[in-house]
Every structure is written in structure tokens, then in C-alpha cells.
Amino acid sequence: MNQIKIGKFIAECRKEKNLTQEQLADMLNTTNKSISKWENGNCLPDSSLYEPLCNILEITINELFAGKKIKDEDYKKVADENLMQMLKYKLYCLSDKSITFNEFGNALDRMSEAFTILKSFATKEEAVNFMMKETDLSYDECSYAYDFYINLYKID
């Protein structure tokens, strides 16, 4: 999620509506400092403000997170990408933020890829043998890693 691109887009849309930062802030019951932070890419609006912000600026939430107007033919692709970005951002907000958002997103992507690879094997033994061959780690280490990734994605 490119906060700078989103911020510039918010500013562009606000200006198209001939609104000042103060006016937009009043409409959203927030401060002009918050608007300034968004527009400078320092942070994103609180999720409770996404819908009212989009309504005021007459944009979709997908356009907000894409940081641009979206053509009809590109809408599905952008919507799917933005959904994943929004989920990553929500998870990041719950984290201790000891790493950057991009590092966090990359880690989630790698975990998802590892899970996908491990699930492609018919049995745990096949997956563990594959990991041992690829990593030179012991059986116990690979078995633990397999269990970790599989349990990570279990849904109760």
C-alpha cells in the first residue's frame, strides 16, 4: 500500500471538489492536521473514515487504495489487489510495528507462498522430505516448520 500515492490522490480529489483541508476535516469530524498527514503520506485515515471520505470525494474505496481513478475494465484486478492490501494493513495495525509495512507485507506473502507449496504435497512426509532437500535442515526442523505453517492457516 503506497501511502504517498494515496495521500496525493486524496489531495487531488479534495482540490477537484474545491475543498480546503479544513473543510474536508470538518466534514469528516477530524482535524486539518490529520488531512495534512494523509495527504503527505505520513499515515492513512482511520478505517471508520474510508466510507465517508470516499463519499465526499466521490471515489470508490478501491480507487482510494489504488491512489488513482480506475477504468471499468481494470476494476476487478485492482479490487482484488486492494483487498489484499487492506487486509495486510489491518493486520499490520494489530502488530507491534517493529518492522515497516512493506517488510510486514513481504513476510505475509512469503508465509502464504510457503503454505501453498506445503499444501501441494499429498502427505506431510513428502513435504518434509522436500524441505530437507531444499534447505539442508534436519527432519525435526522441517517437520516443525511444516506443522507451524499448516497450523498457522487452520480455521476453526
Task: For the structure shown, list the relevant keywords.
mainly alpha, 434 Repressor (Amino-terminal Domain), 9 helices, elongated
Describe the structure.
This protein has 156 residues and is mostly helical. The protein folds into 2 domains: 3-90, lambda repressor-like DNA-binding domains (434 Repressor (Amino-terminal Domain), Orthogonal Bundle); 100-152, no CATH class. 70% of the residues lie in helices and 0% in strands. It has helices spanning 3-16, 21-28, 32-39, 50-57, 61-66, 75-94, 101-119, 124-135, 139-152. α2 (21-28) crosses α3 (32-39), α6 (75-94) crosses α7 and α8 (124-135) packs across α9 (139-152). The two termini are 29 Å apart.
Largest sheet: none
SSE string: HHHHHHHHH
Estimated share of beta-strand residues: under 5%
Count of helical regions:
9
Low-pLDDT parts are none
Q: What kind of assembly state do the chains in view correspond to?
A: single chain
CATH superfamily of the largest domain: lambda repressor-like DNA-binding domains
Shape: elongated
Q: What is the mean predicted local confidence, pLDDT? A: 84
Which fold name corresponds to the CATH topology of the largest domain?
A: 434 Repressor (Amino-terminal Domain)
Backbone CA Rg: 21 Å
How helical, in percent, are the residues?
Answer: 55-70%
Report the count of strand segments. Answer: 0
Number of domains: 2
The CATH C-level name of the largest domain is: Mainly Alpha
Alpha-beta content class:
mainly alpha
